[in-house]
User: Which sequence fits this backbone?
């Protein structure tokens, strides 16, 4: 039960941050019609059918270079397509909640109670979507061989190491080095 509370707290924080950033992002792009140039002809991000996933992590990018068999490629494509179809209504509901939050912040008045209610509703939807993404990831990983899983783990570790190196370099540039005279 305590673990569920942490997931819900994380989901609420993530959705709240996204909801608060959305109006600013829309203002920066001058858009908001939902038909940005990043969408494909049918409105999917990246032009992929089945909804895809941010950054393509669950698309071909995550498994690129693993020498997948035709059968594995077909099964992974089926998993992605099934995920897109099964989460389509959930994603549409989440977009609608984000729009409702945005509308609560429009104009000269801000309806904090309404925004909080809509953010709570969005957090619940976001948590469900995250659970579905986790399920899809586990199902996708079950298609791989032990060797392929080891390669993925090695890549993850390398990315983490590179991330730490970048953080260290940024820290040195921001004042961690010798003072300039």
Assistant:
């Amino acid at each position: 039960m305590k673990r569920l509370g942490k997931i819900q707290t994380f989901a609420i924080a993530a959705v709240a941050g996204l909801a608060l950033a959305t109006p600013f992002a829309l203002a920066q792009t001058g858009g908001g019609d939902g038909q940005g140039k990043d969408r494909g002809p049918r409105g999917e991000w990246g032009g992929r059918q089945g909804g895809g996933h941010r950054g393509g992590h669950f698309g071909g990018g995550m498994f690129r270079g693993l020498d997948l068999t035709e059968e594995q490629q077909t099964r992974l494509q089926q998993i992605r397509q099934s995920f897109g179809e099964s989460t389509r209504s959930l994603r549409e509901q989440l977009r609608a909640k984000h729009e409702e939050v945005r509308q609560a912040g429009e104009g000269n008045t801000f309806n904090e109670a309404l925004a909080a209610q809509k953010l709570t509703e969005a957090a619940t939807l976001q948590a469900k979507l995250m659970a579905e993404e986790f399920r899809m990831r586990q199902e996708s990983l079950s298609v791989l061989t032990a060797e392929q899983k080891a390669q993925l783990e090695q890549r993850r570790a390398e990315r983490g190491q590179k991330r730490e190196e970048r953080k260290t370099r940024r820290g040195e540039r921001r004042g961690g080095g010798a003072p300039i005279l």
